[in-house]
Design brief:
mainly alpha
């Protein structure tokens, strides 16, 4: 059965990243209003063994880009993980959205059964492209987007579910 992999990737990434961009604006405004050093938000973590806000945005970006690269066979746009400010993170989000938009639907669609191999220090994981998107990419992407949201919420930024979901 054919699966429209482009519909399961690009619009989802674009929407969530766009919402995340707006959430970052609210985080920056909150810091300014309350006289909080922006680094207190950017370096915040839910727990010590998790990445900070910056890392969560980087990993969400990498998840979106990686899906398009691995399934679509397109050249990656390398981002060096050097972000240190809200502006840097917003630039990364904008670059990620532009990259996702640049990948044509026909590069992704029809590749449901293509083998995707992820190599990690602890081993290899093999998927077909459909399983990779639905069972790995989407949960991983949403994990990092949600964690970024949760970090800002934990720090008191006045955001809610509709900020996360965006315009429905």
């Amino acid at each position: 059965m054919a699966t429209d992999l482009h519909t399961l990737t690009a619009p989802i990434f674009i929407r969530a990243l766009t919402n995340l961009d707006k959430i970052l604006d609210k985080g920056r405004a909150f810091a300014a209003e309350k006289g909080i050093d922006e680094n207190d938000l950017l370096e915040a973590k839910l727990v010590d063994d998790m990445g900070n806000l910056i890392s969560q945005i980087q990993r969400a970006s990498d998840s979106a880009k990686g899906a398009m690269v691995r399934v679509g066979g397109v050249e990656n746009v390398v981002m060096d993980d050097t972000e240190t400010s809200f502006d840097d993170l917003k630039t990364r989000i904008a670059k990620t959205i532009a990259f996702v938009k640049s990948v044509p639907a026909d590069a992704i669609n029809g590749k449901e059964d293509a083998e995707i191999v992820l190599k990690f220090p602890n081993g290899e994981y093999k998927f077909d492209a459909r399983g990779y998107i639905l069972g790995f990419v989407q949960p991983n992407f949403y994990f990092h987007v949600t964690t970024a949201y949760d970090i800002l919420r934990m720090k008191g930024v006045p955001i809610g579910k509709m900020d996360y979901l965006g315009g429905i």
